[in-house]
Design a protein that fits this description.
Length: 89
Amino acid sequence: MSKKIKLQNIYAGQLVVTSNSPEAQVRTVESVEGFMVTLTWYEGTNQCIQGVDYSLLMTPTIEQIEYSISNHGRLANMEDVKDVALLIG
């Protein structure tokens, strides 16, 4: 089961999920501004971006990471986070 993450423990590049479902999409933290966190992830070759409240974030399980990679493609990394910052910044 995924564990909730405290606001002070959230950082850019961190892998997170917003659901306990084994099929949860694993996302990468791009930035934290107050209580809002910007996430990025891939669906195939498409990079996606979303803002969410920090209280939704949990640490992904190994099963969620494996499922996400095998069904949605690669995980976003620090280079992708930098690219997102350039796009929205």
